[in-house]
Amino acid sequence: MINLLKSHSFFKDTRIDVCTLLENQGYCNENYLVVANGVKYIVRKLLRDDIDREFEWRVQHLAYAQKLTSEPLLFDREHGFMVFAFLEGKHKRKLDKNELKHLAQTLQKLHSTTIDAKPIELQIECSTIEKYPKEYTLCHNDLNPQNIFFSNDIKFIDWEYAGVNDKYFDLASVCIEFGLNKKMQELFLEAYFEGKSFSFEKLEAYKIVYKRLCEEWFQNML
After folding, report:
1. Domain at 97-221: CATH code
2. CB 140 within 8 A of CB 159
């Protein structure tokens, strides 16, 4: 990777001091911490060719405009890597009430972002969710703790699964990934909907869908 970066015009006339493969990677990318002339970057080597990277890059720009993610700097389509500004922050597995409210507000901001795209089709049989009206928004669709940075602001990363989906899918994923109990789920939804009505039954249905999709995904990765 370091030789590729040195040969690229983006890093022309810079000294690359660090190029370290980060631990705890997913299956879709390899992420590197790169320090060039004292400036930190995240370089993502794209591993899968069945993902619409053009759409991912488009969403990254929209999310950055909303201050929801790191600045996208380079997409080298030929060599299959992206470069982003480095984000300060940390991942969390458990959230207190204030953090959960902040996450709800940040997610609400993402869901208010408009994009011209068709809704994704969930690759799973679940008749339960069909009785609920769809509330389509731009969703992250992979809100596990590794994809959320907490600092003064909350930032989302890794947008390869982003797409138009029912907002309850993202809400359900947060509830599952952070192990929210009933009381914390209620606090989360109240902060997100800000006095508007919401459905616990619909949330439960999407929690089932999310769990099944995760199970299928991990089975396919074995």
Report:
1. 3.90.1200.10
2. yes
